[in-house]
Specification:
single chain; 300 residues; alpha/beta; Rossmann fold; nine-stranded mixed sheet; 19% strand; binds S-adenosylmethionine; Ribosomal RNA large subunit methyltransferase J; SAM-dependent_MTases_sf; rRNA processing
Length: 300
């Protein structure tokens, strides 16, 4: 358990993960009935971008900062095009966080982004195994009766949390992948049990892309997990052939809302334009499983 998200908060992978999360939360809010957000790997909830950890890696500069200041993109004309509404609204929500009045100082993690998007009727169930991160998380939400923090293994806790009393909602699975192979197998076993207990829930799984071959077995598993709709959104800022660095990442969404493909298409295009590094970023959006017609886009 060496992973601390504070070193990576706001990086290009968070931009993909959290903008997809934002889109899913907006979709859930389209109905009046309450929903549940279950975050199996919650982190500490909020990160100081001027703190020691974020300063050491500076990863947010090639992430969220590129969306805020498109001209930071090396040698590019990226600033000339307006952001798609989803990304604009997501950024506005982050800038509206208390503490960010004079510019981006704090980067909210998934639990805080979700809590700020939720209504009074919705509930959040957050699991975090690391005791110090869990303490910070609990402090962050001690005043918020909608939010329940569990200092425990998110994979184990999920069994007890499903199905949620709200009956509809989203499970976010965002582990550190310290041991890649093992983590994927654990996710598959957890999802198998979760889909039995709660077949109608939305499950969003973030995954790192270093070498493509490391991800393929999981994507194949998703195609045969029995779910009727699975959407995959990926963004690569480097070629996916080096095991030594994070080249990109993806979000797999089980039981994705039917219109999520349309909602994410333009934002992914814009993220690729703004987050590209030494060469053009690649993005991919397609249904791994879809009832009825298929849609797919791979660029460039
Ligand atoms: N979801 C967070 C966000 O988007 O802001 C970031 C989570 S970070 C990638 C992964 C977190 O999972 C770390 O804080 C780590 O301590 C925690 N963790 C690792 N193994 C865990 C487990 N089995 N159950 C719950 N939390 C775990």
């Amino acid at each position: 358990m060496n992973y601390r998200h504070a070193y990576h908060a706001g990086n290009f992978a968070d931009v993909l993960k959290h903008s997809v999360l934002f889109a899913l939360l907006q979709a859930l809010k389209a109905k009046e009935t309450p929903f549940a957000l279950i975050d199996t790997h919650a982190g500490s909830g909020c990160y100081a971008l001027d703190g020691e950890e974020a300063g050491k890696t500076g990863e947010y500069r090639d992430g969220i900062m590129r969306l805020l200041f498109p001209d930071l993109k090396r040698g590019g004309q990226a600033g000339s095009q307006p952001l798609p509404p989803l990304l604009r609204h997501w950024l506005d929500a982050i800038l509206a966080l208390p503490g960010n009045e004079h510019g981006l100082k704090l980067y909210p993690g998934s639990p805080l982004q979700a809590a700020r998007a939720m209504r009074d009727i919705d509930g959040a169930y957050l699991c975090e195994l690391h005791p110090e991160e869990a303490t910070l998380l609990r402090e962050l939400f001690h005043h918020d009766a909608r939010v329940h923090v569990h200092n425990r293994n998110g994979y184990e806790a999920l069994k007890a949390l499903l199905p949620p009393k709200e009956k509809r909602g989203l499970v976010l699975i965002d582990p550190p992948y310290e041991a890649q192979e093992a983590e994927y197998r654990l996710i598959e076993a957890t999802l198998k049990a979760a889909l039995q207990r709660w077949p109608t829930g939305i499950y969003a799984i973030w995954y790192p892309i270093k070498q493509r071959s490391q991800v393929q077995p999981f994507l194949r598993w998703l195609q045969h997990c029995g779910a009727k709709r699975v959407l995959r959104a990926e963004l690569l800022v480097h070629p996916d052939d080096s095991p030594l660095r994070l080249n990109g990442s993806g979000m797999a969404i089980i039981n994705a809302p039917w219109n999520l493909y349309q909602i994410l298409r333009e934002p992914l295009q814009a993220m690729a334009r703004l987050l590209s590094q030494e060469r053009a970023a690649q993005w991919q959006l397609d249904w791994l499983v879809e009832e009825g017609a298929s849609a797919a886009a791979t660029h460039p």
